[in-house]
Write a structure and sequence with these properties.
About 45% of the residues lie in helices and about 15% in strands. By secondary structure, it is of the alpha/beta class. The protein contains 30 helices and 21 strands.
Length: about 725
């Protein structure tokens, strides 16, 4: 049976129309109702029905009304609309044929001159199912001829006037007098991707069709579909600034806040794009709700300062954020006086903050970490030690006045005991649980179905579990994969809402792996490559299943420490395995030709594949270089001279271009390499190798030809082949 909503009723004649889920209008007659009387039927009721074709088209039969837990259109009898003008009342009366008006709201002011009105609408069951809207929606009227961005602030103000548990935080409706409102809003949202879904209407467009219920319904449903289904709520790249799209780590955030109030410092370390800065932002928002005090410091800014002025910068930032008058200036913070002045300034700030403990959140610590910072004074000099001696000293003296959270990708700053023979002030200053955990299956399911439902996507349980496992619970990878799912659905013009089953998942995963995964993984695990090369090498061994190497190192805890901490691998007994299948596939693909091959069949498969890959490029190089240097006639002679006599006779009638067409001429790797070697002066400028080296590489490759597949390939022969062809691949790619 199909599902739809009663969109029109013609009472005197006993018939009406159903709007199906794919927006088609289907005629029905009262005689085809099964479980409800025509007199009891209302516009907005959800029905299930079958269709029957007649000479006028299709009509609905066997119509059953859905009664359970339904919200039907209308106006709550207790609602008062006296504060709305006549146009707004007309609009609300029309909307009450689609929504249930639960609360008349009020008029409120923004600033000294701006005035807005709001009310609350309850989505009908149909809207709830289509757009995952289960709570009331705030509707704001902006009775001004020109839309200004402050109208969006009016939405926030309206939210503050009602219980946050009552309204839907992700969606609101704004009705403006500006006829260009929709266009202006779209332009504004381009620079504010975390803005909630705002459904825009103008007074004019709503009033112009107020007497045409069918057009009214079409406009409302299409506008909702546009702003929900065409927006990609997964496509976030920057750290999240609002709670609206923050998932999975509320308990972790609360734990960090609790540690602050018990005078404990904390660490938040993880791979790139794992959500560290989003967590810090969430901590700040949590403190704001309880009037807690905090300051967020980006170490990229500190990296451009010396240690003493970096401390002054922290004091300056606190004073600026909380409107506190500075006691000292930057020039006062000399090497000799900085510790004393910093303590005086921090105590003064604490007094101005009424004794409330301050949480200092220090993000991207690697920018000021010894040995890895970009600035010489932090990387090589003693700025790190001096800076943290002062900051740690203040904390140790006044633990109830300040704590800190250190966040970053590289925990070197807190794991190293000595720096050039001096004690590291941060060593053993943080609890052991400093790594940011990955998403559980439940976290993944909650996030993708909450956001997906607003976009018309419902991920079934199997797919949710697969996504969580495949992406290793990494929230950025999860979001980007789901974004690719949404892109696939739109490109294939599949109708929303739609259930994302394993069939669709299996279609999208190879596309994601081919087009996006490499770049994302390269970015995410770069910290291992640059800072923990031995551990990255072990990660490669685990991905390539080099069991002997893993077995030899299984008791070396240090080599697995960060891999486990970052959530890339897990250990059970003496066995290690990947938690992040996406990273595993990336490493396997990147090291495809480094894997230890056990059978001759596997070895010959690699040899053939790699030869076949470079042959077309080699053919292109020879074709273009001979033509540009010698012309087609002489070039053709050079090609034929590289062939055996009987082969020359076979192909001498072919044109120059046809000699390079594999369907017409058998010219392969051997012939191409021979032409290059015999005419080295014509090709030498294309390669960084000398002639002898080039010839030795091609000889090694030619000795392992496809017609020798029956012969065994030793490990030493395979290693020689890999070395030769890897070098040639780079040379040929550069030449092309």
């Amino acid at each position: 049976m199909q599902k739809g909503i009663i969109s029109e009723l013609y009472r005197p004649r006993g018939y009406g129309f159903i709007r199906s889920m794919n927006e088609e209008k289907v005629f029905f007659h009262a005689s085809n109702l099964v479980n409800v009387k025509y007199e009891k039927l209302k516009e907005g009721d959800i029905v299930h029905f079958e269709t029957l074709k007649n000479n006028k088209g299709y009509k609905a039969i066997n119509i059953k009304c859905q009664f359970e837990n339904k919200t039907t259109p209308g106006i709550n009898p207790a609602v008062k609309l006296g504060h709305f003008n006549s146009s707004e009342k007309d609009i609300l009366n029309a909307l009450s044929k689609i929504f249930y008006l639960t609360n008349g709201g009020a008029v409120f002011k923004m600033g000294t001159n701006s005035q807005y009105a709001y009310c609350l609408l309850k989505p009908t069951t149909f809207f709830s199912e289509q757009f995952n809207l289960n709570r009331e929606i705030v509707l704001v009227f902006s009775n001004y001829e020109t839309f200004e961005p402050r109208t969006l602030d009016a939405i926030s103000k309206a939210y503050s006037l009602v219980s946050e548990l009552r309204v839907d935080k992700i969606c609101s409706i704004v009705v403006s007098k500006d006829s260009q409102f929709e266009k202006k809003l779209k332009d504004l949202l381009k620079s504010n991707i975390e803005m909630q879904v705002v459904i825009p209407f103008s007074y004019g467009e709503l009033l112009s069709i107020i007497k045409f219920p069918d057009k009214y319904y079409d406009l409302i449903i299409k506008r909702f579909r546009t702003y929900f289904y065409e927006r990609d709520l997964f496509a976030f790249f920057a750290p999240l600034q609002k709670d609206l799209y923050f998932f999975g780590r509320q308990a972790y955030v609360q734990d960090l806040v609790n540690k602050h109030f018990t005078n404990e410092n904390s660490g938040v370390f993880g791979l790139r794009r794992s959500g560290k800065t989003s967590v810090l932002n969430a901590v700040c928002r949590t403190l704001n709700r309880i009037d807690g005090k905090w300051i967020l410091i980006d170490c990229e800014v500190l990296s451009n300062l010396r240690w003493n002025t970096a401390l002054y910068y922290i004091v300056q930032a606190i004073c600026k954020q909380y409107k506190i008058k500075l006691l000292h200036n930057k020039m006062d913070y000399t090497d000799e006086d900085v510790a004393i002045l910093f303590e005086q300034d921090m105590l003064y700030c604490n007094d101005q903050l009424k004794g409330k403990s301050l949480l200092v959140l220090i993000d991207e610590i690697e920018h000021i970490t010894f040995e890895i910072a970009l600035s010489n004074n932090w990387r090589k000099d003693d700025d790190f030690i001096r800076f943290w001696r002062v900051l740690r000293g203040y904390y140790q003296k006044y633990p109830n006045k300040m704590t800190f959270i250190i966040a970053g990708t590289n925990p070197k700053s807190i794991e190293t005991s000595f720096i050039d023979g001096y004690d590291n002030p941060l060593f053993k200053q943080l609890p052991s649980d400093k790594y940011l955990g990955t998403f559980s299956v439940q976290d993944t399911k909650e996030m993708i179905n909450k956001l997906g439902a607003y976009m018309g996507l419902k991920f079934d349980d199997i797919v949710s579990a697969n996504i969580s496992q495949e992406m290793g619970g990494h929230p950025f990878l999860i979001r980007q994969f789901c974004s690719k799912v949404n892109e696939f659905i739109n490109q294939k013009h599949l109708e929303k809402p739609i259930v994302i089953t394993k069939v669709i998942y299996d279609q999208v995963l190879p596309i994601f792996e081919e087009k996006d995964l490499h770049d994302y993984c390269e970015m995410i695990i770069n910290v291992l490559k640059t800072s923990y090369s031995e551990e990255y090498k072990m990660l490669e061994n685990i991905a390539l299943e080099n069991k002997q190497v893993i077995l030899e190192q299984r008791d070396n805890k240090s080599i697995f420490y960060h891999l486990i901490g970052y959530g890339l691998i897990e250990k059970t007994g003496d066995f290690f395995g990947f938690r992040n299948e996406a990273v595993k596939k990336y490493i396997q693909q990147k090291n495809k030709y480094n894997k230890l091959l056990k059978t001759d069949e596997e070895k010959w498969a690699e040899i053939s594949e790699r030869r076949n890959k470079i042959e077309p490029s080699l053919r292109t190089i020879v074709k273009l270089q001979l033509k540009s240097s010698l012309g087609e006639t002489t070039g053709k002679t050079k090609i034929l001279n590289a062939m055996k006599a009987e082969t020359q006779q076979k192909y001498k009638s072919l044109s120059y271009n046809d000699l390079f067409d594999t369907k017409k001429c058998e010219v392969y790797f051997y012939q191409m390499s021979k032409i290059i070697i015999d005419n080295w002066k014509l090709f030498s400028n294309l390669f960084s190798l000398n002639k002898n080296t080039f010839q030795s590489y091609t000889t090694i490759i030619n000795n392992l030809r496809a017609d020798c597949h029956a012969a065994p390939v030793s490990n030493s022969e395979l290693q020689s082949f890999r070395g030769a062809i890897s070098s040639l691949e780079k040379e040929i790619n550069n030449a092309v």
